[in-house]
Amino acid sequence: MGATALSVRRHTYLDSVFLMRVAKALEGGPGINNVAVVMATPANKELLHDAGFIGADVDSSGPDDLVIAVAAQTDGQARAAIAGVDSLLAGSILEGSQIARSWDDALSQLPDANLAAISVPGEYAATEIEHALEVGLHVFCFSSNVSLADEIRLKQVAASRDLLLMGPDCGTAIIAGRGLGFSNAVRRGPIGIVGGSGTGIQAVSCLVDAGGSGVSHAIGSGSRDLSDDVGGITTFAGLRALADDATTKVIVLVSKTPGAQTLARLQEIIRSLGKPVVTCFLGGPTSGTALTFEQAAGQALGFAGAGPLRNGTVTAVPTHVEGRARGLFAGGSLLYETQRILQQADVSPARYELVDMGSEELTRGRAHPMIDSRHRAERIIATAEDPTVGILLLDFVLGRGAAADPAGDLIPAIGEARSRAAREGRSLVVVASVCGTDGDPQDRGRQAAALTEAGVIVLPTSARAATYVAEALR
Amino acid sequence: MKIAELLKKGPLVINVGLRDFARDLEDQQVDVVQLEWRPPAPEDDEMKRLLEKLL
């Protein structure tokens, strides 16, 4: 049955990504069955309770308190894990960094600051955005779960002060060659990107780089910006800024399909910019817009006098696969792109299911799958138990902010899934794309090579991976 | 004009939240200050309401 041990550290706030790393380190210890290292928010307390971590200490703790919970085979092993946590927590200290205790302190340490990067839990983000705008800072807000009403109000405040509010729910941006959030090491160049689709911006920027050109700026707007509720406030500000920016020659807009009223206004603005604009809208009207990120990047490269896209040709010839395809995606935009390609190829929806592992429902109490691959690994192994699935589609998104070795994190699970299927006389084809550059910390070439060595069919772009799947299902 | 200035000058950042983001910015030679954020204690909300009433 095993034993559990709990420790509550009062008034010890640490961010979720750091805590995920602590949990991962503890999980590797001898005899450990389950680990939770979380702040005691109401939602996390519920998850602790469901996992059988129950104690008066936990009940009385609050969002500012850290809970370390371990289930192990023996009581000694559980307690040893808890005892080892202090040295791991010491790693939270940012060596050599400038640390501020308050907004005033931060502004006095960096009086020229012009941007706040906000990634606190969603329920607290609006307050911090408001404060940043009040003191005249542009904002990059990574946090999601900010109410629509707050988003509209804060974007109106930002617009009235000529400030850029990227987000909430903004995964990536590149300003003057400097990446914020999840971003790839791409060279600077004449192509500017605006978008509400984080992995879409990453995919386009990497393909622009692969085509021998570069990115002037990439301005994220947040996933809801072009809805009629928000009305495109950040997108329009971003487009106008890129139109006025001397280094930008071509603009790419990547987003979910805009609301009808906003689309009309957007088309008017695009016509007035005086620069070529390539649009790629996910899941909506295709006329005049690029179907895939690859097409969008290709068109932008054409306008910039660069390219064509050199990212290899597909040499793998798909063999027919019986059964269904299952896509487990880290990048939500890559899922929408795949869905569109499968629809265009007339693949029956009964033949595939695509799962957004980064959706709000699947990231409850967990870090994003681009940071923490554990949940996706579980789902990969579970796929082997489903005899109807013959082909598994995965995306790997590299860059700053992402896991150190996304391929390495999932290769054991892929191997396990394939051998489980093989034991039952089935074969499981695994197809993947890698979004990144060779300059990224994870090195695109190395990641792709590791996956190929593990028997994965690696395609140069997400669109080609989707096309491969469509042909295999034919 | 402020947005044009940001694009011209590049970001100088106050990072509120994930420490990894501050580290990534430092690696790119961006000036960054990490604001040690923590969730407000529940009594702060109460205090805020009282203050708002008073003012």
The portion of residues assigned to helices of chain B is: 40-55%
| Rg of chain A, Cα atoms, Å | 23 Å
* Broad structural category of chain B: alpha+beta
The biggest beta sheet of chain A, please? 5 strands, parallel
As residue ranges, the low-confidence spans of chain B are none
| Strand percent estimate of chain A | 15-25%
Helix content of chain A: 25-40%
Distance N terminus to C terminus of chain B?
35 Å
Number of strands of chain B: 2
Our Rg estimate of chain B from Cα atoms comes to 17 Å
Greatest chain-chain contact: A-B, 61 and 41 residues
- The quaternary state of the protein chains shown equals heterodimer
Q: Tell me the overall shape of chain A.
A: globular
Strand content range of chain B? 5-15%
Sheet/helix structural class of chain A: alpha/beta
Total number of helices of chain A: 17
Which strand order do you get reading across the main beta sheet of chain B? 1-2
Main pleated sheet of chain B: 2 strands, parallel
The total of beta strands of chain A comes to: 18
Q: Which terms would index this structure?
A:
heterodimer, A: 474 residues, alpha/beta, five-stranded parallel β-sheet, four-stranded parallel β-sheet, 17 helices, 20% strand, B: 55 residues, alpha+beta, two-stranded parallel sheet, 3 helices, 2 strands, 55% helix, elongated
